[in-house]
Amino acid sequence: xxxxxxxxxxxxxxxxxxxxxxxxxxxxxxxxxxxxxxxxxxxxxxxxxxxxxxxxxxxxxxxxxxxxxxxxxxxxxxxxxxxxxxxxxxxxxxxxxxxxxxxxxxxxxxxxxxxxxxxxxxxxxxxxxxxxxxxxxxxxxxxxxxxxxxxxxxxxxxxxxxxxxxxxxxxxxxxxxxxxxxxxxxxxxxxxxxxxxxxxxxxxxxxxxxxxxxxxxxxxxxxxxxxxxxxxxxxxxxxxxxxxxxxxxxxxxxxxxxxxxxxxxxxxxxxxxxxxxxxxxxxxxxxxxxxxxxxxxxxxxxxxxxxxxxxxxxxxxxxxxxxxxxxxxxxxxxxxxxxxxxxxxxxxxxxxxx
Length: 354
Description:
Elements (H helix, E strand, L loop, with lengths): L11 E4 L6 E4 L3 E6 L5 H14 L2 H4 L2 E6 L5 H10 L5 E5 L13 H13 L8 H12 L12 E4 L5 E2 L7 H8 L3 E3 L2 E3 L8 H11 L10 H4 L10 E3 L4 E4 H4 L2 H13 L1 H4 L4 H12 L5 E3 L5 E3 L2 E2 L5 H6 L18 H8 L16
Parallel strand pairs: 3-4, 3-6, 4-5, 8-12
Antiparallel strand pairs: 1-2, 6-11, 7-13, 8-11, 9-10, 13-14
Helix pairs in contact: 1-3, 5-12, 7-10
């Protein structure tokens, strides 16, 4: 298997259609948002927060907006007016990326949704949520518009960046040869991932050559692989190298999972799928934690615990509600496994995920 870290990054010329200026950057990258027409205001808010905290005027990165339905002209016009740099792309997701595969038993899927609803699992009855998770697991990087890019940064509606982002995160990904970047981690709800670990283990046992020798499997399994410990990277904020997701290893892994029907018979999320995949298929030293971003996505936020750092980054966040280093987070396990120094400051214990 070709290792993504061995591929030459090269150089790309970027033409900024907004300012008419030409820039040279070592990487080809885009922000990526899966968003509905009804989420316009939430998307505009996210663009505003990112523009205020990340100086994209310096870089001119593009932004891809994807929707399972056609974007309204009013949506497109409003988003375009919010841009100060970079090129926005608006795409409709192909039906085959947002529909039931032929092998799905619809009666069984309906019964399983009803069962999860009785157990009060979040989004238990939602079919669109399942299509979304399947799309984010296996198809977003296959979109035609995404083929011109190597790196992506996922941005959802209604999020906030409450601290300055003084560095180019895409450049950090490229310079370090990282395949995946994240900011918060947490345990997944056990009832939403029934069968996921078993299907994953089966695939990796049948395809041992795909498993990276310096993997971080222990981050997702505290029992030497016998069980999933539910740890996952919160994928609503993630940066990734799409060469990893387009690799034979990841594509075959996704196909194996998809054939089980777990996205529809259970309620598998893209976050645990991405997390298990990078933990087995990637070098553990090529997974990057982006701390101190002040990232907020209801109900959790990151906030630097160091007073001076919060001042330096002009943060507008509440450290007592910091999640990154909370006792229920999986971040400390990641640092221990990666040989990284864990910050000495501990967060308040009073904040818990809803």
